[in-house]
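W.,

You were right to be curious about this one. When I first looked at the sequence I had no strong expectations either way, so I just let the prediction run and decided to look at it fresh. Below is the sequence, 247 residues in total, followed by the output.
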Amino acid sequence: AQTKVLAVTARADIFPQSELVHAEQTALRFGVPHMFADFNILNCTEFTSNPGNRCYVCKKRLIGLLKEIARVNHFHFIIDGTNASDLTDYRPGLKALQEEKIVSPLKEAGLTKREILLLAEELGLPAVPDNACLASRIPYGQPITSQKLEMIEKAESLLHSLGFKLCRVRYEGDTARIEVPERDFEKIMIKKNREAILSGFESVGFLFTALDLQGYASGSLNKQLKKGVYSHAGKPFKGPSQQVEKQ
C-alpha cells in the first residue's frame, strides 16, 4: 500500500521567503502533497524576548501546530529533519522534540549534515539551503521584531545574489556583522561587491557594515551563553550545560 504522507512548511517571519519557495518546488517535483501552515510565533512574548532557550519555546509551539494538523488529517507520526550534526552544538529545541516524541530518521541513522548533502547530490536531489531561522541572527536578550527580521532577510538575500552561498548577517543594532567563510574574504572586498553591500545594507536600514574576521560559524551567537555574558529578565543565564539537558 502507498504510504500516506503530507509535507508541512511553517510560514512565519522568522523563515526566509526563499525557503518557502524551495519547499514548495521540492514537494511539487516529487509529487508529495504539501501545505503551508501559518505560524504566528511573533505573537509569543516568551519567544520575542529572546531568552537563551528561545529555540525550545519556538519548537514546542511549532510542534503543537503540527500535532493539530496531524490530528485533523489522521496522521500518526510527525517526522522532522534533525540530523547527527545537530547534536554537536547547543540545540535547546532538541529537548522539545524528545518531549513530544517527534521522529528524526536522519539523526537515528547517524547521518551528519555533510553526509546528507553528499547523498542528496548522488541521488540528484535538490540542494538543501544551509540555513537557520532568522531570529538566530539576533543576540540573545535583544527583542525579536518583524522589522529586524526583514532587514536581516534582505541583507542576506543581497549577499546570495552576489554569489555568497554560505553567509550570515548578524544584527548588532545599527551595525550588520557579516559572516562568510574565510575563503570568501577576498571576494567580499572586491570593490564592486563591497560597494554593492554597503549601499544595499544602508538601504535596508543598517548604518554600518562590518566583516567578522573569524569567518562563518554556525551558531556563533551561542558564545554569549558559553561565556556567561548574557542575562535575561535581570537574571544571569548560566549557559546550555546547566540550563538544558545534554542531548
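Here's what jumped out at me. The radius of gyration is 19 Å. And, maybe more interesting for your project: The first strand starts at residue 7 and ends at 11.

Coffee later to discuss?

I.
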